[in-house]
Design brief:
Layout lengths: L2 H6 L1 H9 L19 H15 L3 H12 L13 H18 L4 E4 L10 E4 L4 E9 L3 H6 L12 H19 L8 E8 L3 H5 L3 H12 L4 E5 L7
Parallel strand pairs: 3-4, 4-5
Antiparallel strand pairs: 1-2, 2-3
Helix pairs in contact: 2-4, 4-5
């Protein structure tokens, strides 16, 4: 990570320093010049601002968790998806505050699997688990090719959504607050391009999430579709 970028983005610099800085797979080693490409500039600004909102203990938990993903790309085609998932946990932290829970905390990893965030206000508690659903392997293979719309949610996407939701329900249920807290699974969904091209799939997605929602609320966000 170039020294100019370290000065401009002090919170990302902390993540850089917490990681294996000499590892050739380190995400930040890509950016070894003082100028960033436009897309990376936007991302760095957003990520640095997100880390800045964390309370001290949550920041420590985030750096511990995320530092191990900085040098661990999922694959050459997918890149650092685990790092993205860690950053999305901060978005979940921010979302809990948006919902009116003034005190939020990223939960430290433990032997038993727990949700990512616990939050409170003067009258109630909240448990929130963040799930990131990535594009399919087929989408990665088709990247750059002309694609046509595919009406209806793919079986693969429905299967992944159902599986991730069930996992979130289990994690939230393991927390001591589970019986008396508001429970939320916050999903970041990145559908394949051919799914996005079919306009009716926005409604199909929301109907499917309504279908599988049980004791834990489902809230979702997509880069291209409105939030639920």
């Amino acid at each position: 990570m170039h020294t100019t970028l370290i000065q401009r983005f002090p919170n990302l610099a902390d993540l850089w320093h917490a990681s294996e800085t000499e590892d050739p797979n380190n995400y930040f080693r890509i950016y070894d010049s003082p100028e960033l490409p436009p897309g990376a500039e936007i991302q760095f600004e957003e990520w640095d601002s997100l880390i800045a909102i964390l309370d001290p203990q949550s920041r420590t938990n985030f750096l511990r968790r995320a530092s191990g993903t900085v040098s661990s790309p999922t694959s050459s085609a997918r890149g650092w998806t685990q790092l993205v998932e860690c950053v999305n946990e901060i978005r979940g932290y921010k979302y809990a505050i948006f919902l009116g829970f003034s005190s939020a905390k990223l939960i430290q990893e433990q032997q038993i699997e727990l949700p990512d965030i616990e939050a409170t206000n003067s009258t109630s508690k909240c448990l929130l688990e963040v799930k990131t659903i990535q594009k399919s392997d087929l989408e990665i293979q088709r990247r750059g090719l002309v694609q046509t719309e595919e009406p209806g949610l793919p079986t693969r996407l429905k299967r992944v959504l159902r599986k991730r939701y069930k996992k979130a329900v289990t994690q939230i249920g393991n927390h001591p607050w589970a019986s008396d807290a508001r429970k939320i699974c916050y999903m970041f969904i990145n559908p394949d391009l051919r799914t996005l091209l079919a306009e009716e799939n926005k409604d199909n997605l929301h109907r499917f999430l309504d279908e599988i929602e049980d004791s834990v609320e489902i809230h979702c966000k997509s880069q291209f579709w409105p939030a639920r």
